[in-house]
Design goal:
With 324 residues, the protein is an alpha+beta fold. It has 2 domains: 174 residues, Transposase IS200-like (Alpha-Beta Plaits, 2-Layer Sandwich), CATH 3.30.70.1290; 76 residues, Chromosomal Replication Initiator Protein Dnaa, Chain: A. 52% of the residues lie in helices and 9% in strands. A 5-stranded mixed sheet has the order 2-3-1-4-5, sandwiched between helices. The radius of gyration is 22 Å and the shape is elongated. The termini are far apart.
Length: 324
Amino acid sequence: MPRRARLDAPGTLHHVIIRGIEKRRIVDDRWDRRNFVSRLGQVAFDTETDVYAWALMTNHAHILLRSSQHGLSQFMRRFLTGYAITYNLRHKRHGHLFQNRYKSIVCDEDAYFRELVRYIHLNPLRAKVVKNMSELDKYHWSGHSVLMGKLKHEWQDRDYVLSWFGQKEGEAGRAYRKYVEEGVEEGRRPELVGGGLVRSLGGWSQVLSLRRENERVLADERILGTGDFVQKVVSEADERIKYQLGDNERREKAQQLIEQTCKKEDVNPNELRMGSRRGRIARVRGDIAYQLVERYGFPLAEVARQLGVTTSAISKAISRLSKT
């Protein structure tokens, strides 16, 4: 069965879940963690994406964000591709680091914003990475410590989250922490990550009751919300989908950039695509590759096809430019 298109409109609230391929690690040490968080923040700044909550675990991560005019797909391509390149080079590994498709769930903000912030920030405590709330307050690798004022990240929208808990900062901070602590006893919340979400009706008992009564409720695994919210999002997406950047448009964007750059640098595009390693050709190819990946979020394999070289060559070129 073909995979369904993402719901990716500017201004949409997304719960994004990133997992290592085959449940493997995505961070090995403190350097990796700092690199992951730094890149998350830099791409959020560059794309004007609002990040509200996040938690970095050993083999997965959660992010609650609002997509900007650049869309979620471009944000995630830039973020994950850049991180994977540096991780692979540093650890001398090859191949995919993340599962091919991160999971993104469009969320009904009014109904679920507070719950999602709490669910995401309790991940380290549920996984026993920290022992108690006091340790979680100071834990560097989730957005909870930012909301508690123990850590500062300019790219995390602390004020917006706290505004859900009170008008004054101190009052809001205390109310937020109390709300998070109350969630510890709830344990895991599969209904917040499993899609549906007919479960948002109040649990499977309610769903079964509706089924017995032959009542139909619209649900979609890409959306967290009631049937009415699902209907609204899906109907709006049907109108938008033709405007999203498809494969043909992406190829056209790459073609335009290649032609414009080659004209500016007085380089033959055909020579560029034939894999020439002449110094000037290689430099121009590297510049184009860097723009396609870092600015437009193209996958490495696609850039390699467009420029007539291997994925490994593209990865190395981008790594060199990233250090300059």
